[in-house]
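Why does residue order matter? Because the sequence determines the fold. Keep that principle in mind as you read this record.
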Amino acid sequence: MRTWANTPEMRDAFRDWYEKTPTKDQSLANCWQAAWNAAKTKPKPRKQRDLFGVSSLAFARNTDPDTSQDAAKSFDPTFLESEVLKAIQAFGVDGCITDQIVAVFSNRDSRTITPRFAPLMRKGWIEDTGERRRGLSGRPQRVMRAIR
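Structure:
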């Protein structure tokens, strides 16, 4: 019977953990327990990787209603991210504010556009220049610029 404990992944996790321990005189049971805990916490590989290096599938919690689950399955956030990135790149080195990007996507709700900025910043595709410009509301908005 093949169990998870005797898989190559588990053996690799044990070997990695054991080689990094400062003292090698620990009991075998402790070593296996630590390796088991380390292996269980490793992230599972994602599917459908794209140019941004993340899953193109939207996520919904298990506790969300079935309508939310269906919406998450039918929505591709990385497509919007790439479209928003192209729009920001079109503004060049001067950068742009949120209102300008929302105006580019006048056919879409702003609530689907503005959440794309944070992932693009985390992935290193755009940056906050530190500059602020007044938006349509009269309040200052950050200026974003594409860096790739």
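The longest strand covers residues 126-134.
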